[in-house]
Amino acid sequence: MDFATYLREQEVRDQTIKSYLATVQEYRQWHAGLPDQEDEISQLLLLEFKSYLKTVRKNHPKTINKKLAGIRKWLEYLQATGQFKGVIQIKDEALSELERLREPKYLDKDEVREIRKAIEKEPNDFLRDRDRCMIYLMLYLGLRQEEAISLHISDIIRTAGKQKVIIREGKGGFYAELPLESQELRKALDQWMEQRSQSRFADSPYLFVSRRTPRAGKRAVVKMIDRVRKTSGVEFTSHQLRHTFGKRIIDETGNIKKAQELLRHRHTSSTEIYTLHRREELVGVLRKLDDVI
Question: What is the distance between the alpha carbons of residues 28 and 42, in angstroms, rounded to a whole number?
Answer without folding.
Answer: 13
